Amino acid sequence: MPLPLEDRLAIHELIALHGHLVDDGDLHRLDELLTPDIVYDLDDFGRSPLIGIAAFRDAALALGPANPVAHHVTNVVVTASDADSAQVRSKGLGVTVDGSCGSVTYDDVVVRTPDGRRISRRRVSARRVPLNGAREPGS
Hints:
2 helices; 139 residues; six-stranded mixed β-sheet; globular; alpha+beta
């Protein structure tokens, strides 16, 4: 059964909320975005996963001025779903204080909770090479 439009809209708004909460410094509202037991996978950055909202908040605060000043989340695609969970892929652009920009892909599991949809797992993958390294055949 296809995911109802209301659920798709809720998921898109949830994914967009990430940038607003983090950029506004509203880390006390992360429970509107993440499940209490969130697994925030930063393996692609050589870091252990962050487990739980407190670990996410502490990591963001520890980065301090190294945090991007702007998180832009775009290209949201719900790739699979059932009544209570959805796999969601999106792109993230982080703009730093010096104006440089980095790109990531977010692979999320979004679950239904009594308080609405929340991200229960997020894998963050850095984009470091164009076309993710794809080449012409034979090259």
